[in-house]
Design a protein that fits this description.
The protein is mainly α. It is about 80% helix and about 0% strand. The protein folds into two domains: about 1-70; about 80-188.
Length: about 190
């Protein structure tokens, strides 16, 4: 049976096509409202899971998938309409592609499942990515509400945090591999 937190996460996933449709048709106010609704459901699903003690394995996987779907699709769409720079889109998307590739390589080469736990820098990076999305949407909705300096500052901070967290995950993966893979005499 589907519990409340997982239902809220599914609702968030189902709003993504509507959000992207509003952006594609330059209906920025509608896109901003759907984005805010998604942010509220994200907050509520986490609170409900803890307060109602309904944390599930499905929810542990579904929630970050919902976040990544929103971030990936939003960044690509906002980059394509030039609301954020393409280089930032590439930075954000490639970090997660590299993390997924690293996880897949470890899984298929060693046969062990590496549990990737978010780090503080990784969580901060995701928060900045979402704040940049919100700022870009506010800017599209009404440019007078947000000075360009604020959006540009968020873009710079997001890029730095994204690259830093990518380097951190890469380092953690190498350390994990080094501790798991014994060297043979021919490797030394």
């Amino acid at each position: 049976m589907l519990n409340l937190p997982n239902f809220l996460t599914l609702v968030r996933i189902l709003t993504i096509p509507f959000f992207l449709g509003y952006l594609a048709y330059h209906r920025y106010t509608g896109a901003l409202i759907i984005f805010m609704f998604g942010a509220i459901t994200d907050l509520l699903d986490g609170l409900a899971a803890r307060w109602l003690r309904q944390e599930t394995r499905l929810g542990a996987y579904l929630d970050p998938v919902a976040d990544k779907l929103l971030v990936f699709s939003s960044y690509v769409m906002l980059g394509s309409i030039e609301a954020i720079p393409i280089w930032l889109v590439v930075t954000v998307v490639m970090r997660d592609v590299f993390i997924l590739l690293g996880w897949a390589i470890i899984f298929y080469q060693i046969g062990e499942r590496l549990e990737v736990r978010p780090t503080l820098i990784g969580k901060g990076s995701t928060m900045l990515q979402l704040a940049t999305l919100a700022a870009a949407l506010i800017s599209l909705h009404d440019p007078s509400l947000l000075p360009a300096l604020v959006l540009n500052g968020l873009i710079a901070a997001t890029a730095a945090a994204t690259m830093l967290s990518g380097i951190q995950y890469l380092y953690r993966g190498f350390i994990w591999l080094q501790n798991r893979t014994p060297l043979t005499p021919s490797d030394r």
